[in-house]
Write a structure and sequence with these properties.
2 copies of one chain form a homodimer. Chain A is of the alpha/beta class. The first copy, chain A, has 12 helices and 7 strands. The structure holds adenosine-5'-triphosphate (ATP) (2 copies) and magnesium ion (MG) (2 copies).
Chain lengths: 262, 262
């Protein structure tokens, strides 16, 4: 049974792409067949795993708007068990195409269902991870309606904390009206630096307010994590011994543990 | 002559709001009558200068979509010479209203022109600073078409560097087709930490590629800057002696110097 997981937050720069790439790479490393979907016109997840956006022929735009079968846009990455559905700035215009059409919000869900239904068991993915743009528009809506669960990365800073209540309430509305089985996989604290008052304070506030909905794993602030994308490598391949690597390995274990519980 | 300046970058978390608030506050501190427009549905600029988003009655949404005169949405802040045009999540739906209408991209420009034309000389602003959301949608388009110049904050990290070429080329297209007098005020390097290789490397790459289009002032990474918004204070009022404060005071001097040149 494939699990589709979206990484979402309208607040910019909170670590959505970093978390999507590294979670997908760690799941693949643990032997789970994983597809990373870049659903942001910035195409950061695409370059973060080593592809030059301008050289990619077919992207998620083609699967959404040009009816190209999802299988045809998938790329093999340099990492075992990890495939990429790439994006580039073409995806910007998808936002307008989808908005004009009542059933536009289900286009990704339909594309994925057709792919999964026709894919033989032995090559069907175990996980699909979707990296979303910093907005609550048609693209994030499509991702959430195609998902089984959602991860909210939240930077331990004031503006990110302020936006958390909003994103949680919009997702609740979405679950009630469109996708009742959408679950919260967890709130993920990112760029944590426990030497700083602000970071400790925000972490405490979030854990107090949201309890077990917050992953016990936190992602520490680590410059190696921000260096890795310029080499097109997930952290476990760029610097396997680094604190950033350990954070994402621990996060992946927590998510795998959720598997056996559900 | 009023100067309208947009702070834009589709990459999230690069310091748009932090730069818009602190530039506006420093200009006001230098005796320039300044209006800060929060043009992001997240409403971070609104809370960053001390207003609770949920308590604000009229917002930029009302000026854009409900034809409320721009003067009626302005709030007096606690800081001399600084007024705020607030935002909240209502602005999300403006994105769709504006998209459906051919002249939707000029709605802010029209609202501001009506306001400036009818405002008496002695209360007319010297500067209008617009904080944009992390996307290149209708809101950022409206801001750019209403602006005289644009500031691009760029974090000294890989993904922000990658997005810079894209935002510069979209703005060039915009200037050619819609707003030929839109000037580049400058590329602003933010969260600079010269102890880190990555930060030094990205700064060098950007200065080499864009030369005098890059402000000589950089904004250093400083935790006091990320603490200030939780107190609803710009940095020059929260911690006037801090490195973050000095960075924005220097940036403001550079922009005032541009005044005398143009
Ligand atoms: N734990 C971390 N430690 C240090 N740097 C980090 C960490 N996580 C992310 N970064 C860096 O911070 C920046 C923002 O992260 P990222 O781009 O993943 O966020 P995002 O939420 O995907 O942004 P956007 O809203 O633009 O999509 C990037 O330059 C990234 O390399
Ligand atoms: N120079 C700096 N030093 C340290 N922290 C900073 C600095 N500038 C901004 N920050 C912090 O980094 C985070 C991102 O900054 P900010 O919210 O201003 O970016 P933004 O581009 O407006 O984000 P968005 O794309 O969501 O609108 C905030 O928590 C802010 O407090
Ligand atoms: Mg991203
Ligand atoms: Mg902002």
């Amino acid at each position: 049974m494939v699990k589709v997981l979206s990484v979402v937050n309208q607040k910019g720069g909170v670590g959505k792409t970093t978390s999507a790439i590294n979670l997908a790479a760690c799941l693949a490393h643990r032997g789970r067949r994983t597809i990373l979907i870049d659903f942001d016109p910035q195409g950061n997840a695409t370059s973060g795993v080593g592809f030059a956006k301008q050289c990619v022929e077919k992207t998620v735009y083609d699967a959404l708007i040009e009816d190209v079968p999802f299988r045809e846009i998938l790329l093999e990455t340099a990492f075992d068990n990890l495939q990429l559905a790439p994006a580039n700035s073409d995806l910007l215009s998808a936002e307008w195409h989808l908005a004009g059409d009542d059933s536009g919000k289900y286009v990704l869900k339909q594309s994925l269902s057709q792919y999964l239904w026709s894919e033989p068991e032995k090559t069907r993915p175990d996980y699909i991870i979707i990296d979303c743009p910093p907005s609550l528009g048609q693209l994030s809506l499509n991702a959430l309606l195609a998902s089984d669960s959602v991860v909210f990365p939240v930077q331990c800073e004031y503006y990110a904390l302020e936006g958390l209540a909003e994103i949680l309430s919009s997702t609740t509305l979405l679950r009630q009206n469109f996708n009742e089985h959408l679950a919260l996989e967890g709130i993920l604290l990112t760029m944590v630096d426990r030497r700083l008052n602000l970071s400790r304070q925000v972490e405490e506030d979030i854990r107090q307010a949201y309890g077990s909905n917050v992953f016990s794993t936190v992602i520490v602030r680590s410059v190696r994590l921000s260096e890795a994308p310029s080499h097109g490598l997930p952290i476990i391949h760029y610097d396997p011994g680094s604190p950033g690597s350990k954070s994402y390995i621990d996060l992946t274990q927590e998510i795998i543990d959720h598997e056996t519980k559900s």
